[in-house]
Amino acid sequence: MTEQQQTGSGWARSLLKDFYYSQTFRAVAFTPIDAVERAIGRTDPLTPPRRLQYVGRREDFEAVGAYWRGRLVDEHGLRSDGSVLDIGCGVGRNAVALIPHLTTGRYEGFDVVPQFIRWCRRQITPRHPNFRFELADVRNRQYNRFGGSPANEYEFPYSDESFDVVFATSVFTHMRPDEIRRYMAESTRVLKPGGRLVITFFLVDFEVRELLAQRRSAFSLDHEFEDPDGTPYLGADARVPEFCIGVEEDIVLGMADGAGLERVGAVEHGSWSGRPGTEAHGYQDLVVLTKPAG
């Protein structure tokens, strides 16, 4: 494929992506299906309508939430009376999964997509008042291009040392390094001493770059960028880098050190890159960090 063909193909993919994620398309395509399912009583009030489920299959909503509940509880010590912050909570997938476990605890979630937060506030919080949701008026070219605050300046709306666990799944995969650095620092601030930060990434190293060059990864990261601080990163979309971002693993681990966090175990490499031996792992790369107790 020539460079001109690659460029044309990239623009076509970008335009199709914009179309798929547009509220107008989703309303036209899925509202009639949602209405029929509601009319015949096929919907659970805590399962969001199809028009709001942007990621994965509708059938995966419960399964993926249960997967993360299991990891947070079994591996990272989230108790039934614990406090958890869900960065980029989306339309409540992890929140709904945690309802049976977090019986006397506290869940807080925030997201930059207004319709997601509206649905969570309307459907989840009235039934479970210990589950609360905040709209973050943060600018992101993929999910909230008209947001008011740049992500690299955003302050989480929570008190210092107020959470046992902070986690972000498929969030830092849509943020530049300078924005990730800010969110990591804010996560450190709101974590209790001894608390854990659980994050997923698309991490890049020499092996991954080779796999990307050989087209063995699940998708391409073939555009190179720099954030305002001059830190390099890779993107899948020339027009909207935040659609899918990969960051060098060493840079991410350096950010953790700079935020005063310590790594818990080895990085768990996901299967997205095509790296051998990751088939039994999750799709994205997982990094677990802790705030030192003293």
Mean pLDDT: 88
Known CATH architecture of the largest domain: 3-Layer(aba) Sandwich
Summed up, the helix count is 8
Strand order of the largest sheet: 3-2-1-6-7-13-12
Low-confidence residue ranges: 1-8
CATH topology term of the largest domain: Rossmann fold
Main sheet makeup:
7 strands, mixed
**CATH level-four homologous superfamily name of the largest domain:** Vaccinia Virus protein VP39
Topology pattern, helix = H, strand = E: HHHEHEHEEEEHEEHEEEHEE
Distance between the termini: 56 Å
Tally of strands: 13
Cα Rg? 19 Å
Residues in helix, %: 25-40%
Strand-pairing-aware structural class: alpha/beta
Strand content: 15-25%
In short:
The chain folds into two domains: 1-43; 57-290, 3-Layer(aba) Sandwich (Rossmann fold), CATH 3.40.50.150. It is 34% helix and 20% strand.
What does this structure look like?
The protein is α/β, with parallel strands linked by helices. The protein has two domains: 1-43; 57-290, Rossmann fold (3-Layer(aba) Sandwich), CATH 3.40.50. The protein is built from eight helices and 13 strands. The chain has helices at 3-21, 23-39, 60-74, 93-98, 114-123, 177-190, 206-213, 249-258, and strands at residues 83-87, 106-111, 131-135, 138-139, 149-150, 163-168, 191-201, 203-204, 223-226, 232-235, 245-248, 262-263, 285-290. α6 runs parallel beside α8 (249-258). The longest helix has 19 residues, at 3-21.
